[in-house]
Amino acid sequence: MSEYIIGIDVGSSKICAAAGKLDKYGRLQIMGITSANCNGVKKSIVVDIDSTSESIKQCIDGLERMIDIKITEAYISLPGGISELVWNKGVVAVASEDREIKANDVKRVIKASKIITIPSDKEIIGVIPQQYVIDGYDKIKDPIGMSGLRLEVDAQIILSQSTVVNNLFKSVDKAGIKVAGVVFQPIAISEVALKREEIERGVVLLDVGAESINIYMFEGGNLAGISTIALGGNTITNDIAVCLKLPFSEAEKLKIKYGSVGVDSNNNDFKIEVNADYNEKISVGCNTLKQVIEARVEELLYIISGELKASEHYEKISGVVIVGGGLALIKGIEDFSREVLQKPVRVGTPEYIGAASPLYSAAVGAVKDASDSMKDRNFIAKKEKETEKVQREWTREKNKKEKEEEKNNGGFITKIKEFFTDFF
């Protein structure tokens, strides 16, 4: 289990799980990925622990068969929609005598940034350092190894409702999986679906799920804002079911297999045979299905556009990236969204073999974030060991040199004493 990193994304319609490990060059490889249907989560909140834990267990069982190991712990992706960002600053004095900033100083300053007043029903689940400041010099990303007297951090504190997080943890624990850590979803997805240039320039990440749309705004290399719309892909499926008088499950299959929007070069109005209630089959026109889907997708996009335009970051947005299964899997969504949002749009997918689907962005992102943290910890530990080794060698050489000087000086003084003794 030690060589594998497991990430789990608990969504409103699906549980996705990914397994990855680092190769000998330190690069992440995704070794397995799977999903299972889930009915115990509504709008990113667990409403049925038993049902959710059963779905997690089913998903993990499938992943275990793929990678042929027993999974006992995993990193959980926590949706941004159930979280709140609060800005705060931490300040500490550098502890070492030589004024070199070490990993422990960074830990202390991050801990200091957590000292804020929070409501009784919420808890701190993480900290995102935005920049470090050393003796007044800002925009420092990694202060370890640098010299200074005073270390500050400007950080975003992630708050979430205690009951919501506890119910999620209980669901995972009941499935027989230990929570190894929590990964903040917008950061996790950005690592596998966004380009560094996009994050620096300004980009919107649309995570469209079954029952909610999470809008994450990035600017200047950092997460700048979060907003949530309580609508998602299920509203499209529900429209198909109502308009065409189909069961919800059949409407979902139709949407996934034949769903499209915008101008289609192969505009053939062929008939699709679908199972209706009571084992009765009906024919559905492809154009009719497309009209139903287009009407709802257009409405969702206009709601998203209104949310973006109301934001202070709208003018700095260079593009929009769509992930999740609510909109990203619909054919023609990029061009159709571009017309409504008036911004460049693309579908974000993880660039890993076997995981190149917008559905798996959060699960793969959780694995990536956890693996990066492990590499950072190993690098810091290695760096500190090397520094200690150099310090020991330097101290040894210094002591040796001092002893030699004492010995030489001692011999010289003895000769002087003997000279004066003989003289007098």
TrEMBL record:
Q: Which UniProt keywords apply?
A: Cell cycle, Cell division, Cell membrane, Membrane
Q: Describe its function.
A: Cell division protein that is involved in the assembly of the Z ring. May serve as a membrane anchor for the Z ring.
Annotated segments matching region Disordered: 385-408
Query: Does Membrane count among this protein's keywords?
Result: yes
Task: State the taxonomy lineage.
Answer: Bacteria, Bacillati, Bacillota, Clostridia, Eubacteriales
Annotated Pfam families: FtsA, SHS2_FTSA
Q: Which branch of life, at top level? A: Bacteria
What is this protein identified as? Cell division protein FtsA
The entry's cellular-component GO terms read: cell division site; cytoplasmic side of plasma membrane
**Protein location:** Cell membrane
